Amino acid sequence: MIDYPNLPRHRGSIIQYRHIAALFPWCFPKAFIPLERIVGVAPIVGVYNEGDEAFISAVVVGEHTTPSTRTAPPLEQKQHLRTAIVQSNEWLLDHLPIWLANTSPFKHTIYQLTGTSIPSVDGASAGLSCLLASIGRLLNLPLASDWIYSATIGDTGELGRVNSVVKKAKGIKSYCPAVQHFVIGNYDTDTSSTIKEIQSLGINVYSFKTIQEAFNTIPIGPFKSIHEAIEHSMEQWVSEKTNSLHQLIENTFLSVLQGFHQIHGWGSLRNMMMRIRNHPDLWNKLSNDAQYKLDITVLIASRYISGKHSDLQSSTCPVLFTNAHLEWLSTCRETERLQILPHMMQQLNELPESILCPEEILALVQSDLPNQNQNWIIPLHLKLAGSWGRYLTTHTNRYKEAYDWQVLCFEQWCNHGFYEQASYPICALLDLSQSLPQHTDHIEDMWRDFAQKPNAKVSQIRRFIPKHWQHKLFGDL
Questions:
Q1: Please, what's the b/e burial string for 104-122 (b: 16 or more CB within 10 A of its CB; e: otherwise)?
Q2: Which of 35, 182, 320, 380 is the least buried, fewest Cβ under 10 Å from its Cβ?
Q3: Mean pLDDT of 299-305
């Protein structure tokens, strides 16, 4: 490995190491780091199993020119690291926007750059670095040479704590003279004290709870953030041909109807859609159908932004649902309408100022509610019926009617094996029991039957169960 601290600082030395500094810039003095750099590479900071010594390595994604083993020996990847790589690949492929989605999982190669030579490396703390290397490869942009990362990645994109983070920060200070910024995951109640301890070393530290939060801050190439780079790549993609623009709107629209914001946070997704809406050339290229779908996407994203489960807060919606939207919704395909209407019911609950024709929405919902004289589209009709039952509970005194709709939904979801979906009506019924005490025993029986179903995921939905039921159903646990 290179003796980075003792490198001669003359021009000949800089030229000699230019090719390796373009690939692995993080341990070089700033003067050695070239402007043009290799993409698909991210730094990893680790700590040996025994002792306090840290080491710096790097992950390279995809095909690349293999460096000399004397410069950067490759490391065997142990189980936890392999799992972290798989998890980062899965999250990325599940959340990629359509214009970056034509890819398959990348191969990740790990090289050691500093420290005592070791044959292998392990640990989930490289998860974020592996993900960022893949993003750099997809965007064809290099990561910043003065940033370094250490965080685990959860199934839903949460960034978690890693072991020995302060020792890692000390290793960065020792081995990486050009690095000024250190990204870590969420340390819960220890976040503040951890940040202060690392900052005392003279390193700027950033703690993020989710990948989307990190993407709003981490720079890449000439862009201030990864989100900005993704939006730029979108603009390039859609400007090439109108078909790409329509494909983007359709893909994003369908994802948002399912509650997915792809790689973007809800705020970034809304901003991206609004950039298209406010761009005269792009907006005019869209068909009327695509324009309405973009507006629906912005409406739904605005609701999620203002919701209690988002870190972003907003009391305004840049797009309002008007009679023109209602007319389009009334005549669009039934499957699309049945997916949109439950969201509009949620808008009435959580962001009512975004709907300018609420009575007409309610009338349209009632006309589409399932009945015995039609063939049901099971998932879609049941979701609509459930949203109607929730509306009756929160906005009227028609509790018995709401109860009947939720019982219908619960029974149908269970009959068709959608036990995870059955969690929504059963939680609604538990909430309704206070207004309908005569049905409490029946509701409890339904719950206990539900709790035995496969994929019921009781532990995950417990936080949505009303407090007055918590002790009765779970005891002192």
A1: eebebbbbbbbbeeeeebb
A2: 35
A3: 92
